[in-house]
Write a structure and sequence with these properties.
Blueprint lengths: L7 E7 L8 E7 L17 H14 L2 E7 L1 H7 L1 H14 L7 E5 L9 E5 L2 H4 L1 H24 L5 H4 L5 H10 L7 H7 L4
Parallel strand pairs: 1-4, 4-5
Antiparallel strand pairs: 1-2, 2-3
Helix pairs in contact: 1-5, 2-3
Amino acid sequence: MARAEVPVAGADEVGRGALFGPVVAGAVILGEGFDWTGLNDSKQLSAKKRSELAERIESHAAAWSIGMASAEEIDRLNIRMATHLAIRRAVEGLGVAPRLVLIDGIDEPLAGIAQKAIVKGDALSVSIAAASIIAKVRRDSMIEELDAVCPGFGLRENKGYGSAAHLKALRSLGPSPFHRKSFIERTGWLF
């Protein structure tokens, strides 16, 4: 009897702690026969290695998708709920319906689908690692492009996170339309 493949997706987000830009989630079903050599938590990989792996994932995985929640949605919903929204959007965008979704972290934000939250899942599951990689590559590329739209914040270097140069620019330039106002107000970083 032939073994039926059960589509398992991995899902992860990046950009949760940034001051600027969206939170971006990836969802990936690697599929049978995918060469997962080198897949690891995106934070453990060089930018060059992440790009190479993202290209392999996007070319050879059974399905992959990106979901986002904007800075405005983050401000309106809060970062936790916006992260859930981005993950739901990523999973809903898959061209193959997963039977199970493994999600990095402690939350299970999906409705009507089997899911399992795994703490440090991006280091324990190749599917979650793959989702982490495509999300990180996509978000970093997007933030680098926004550096031209919002100059002065050092986005190419800090990717929207609160580096000393970014905080200094926020104090002198004020926030851009892509900054998360709730993060800035809550922490008093401008004051």
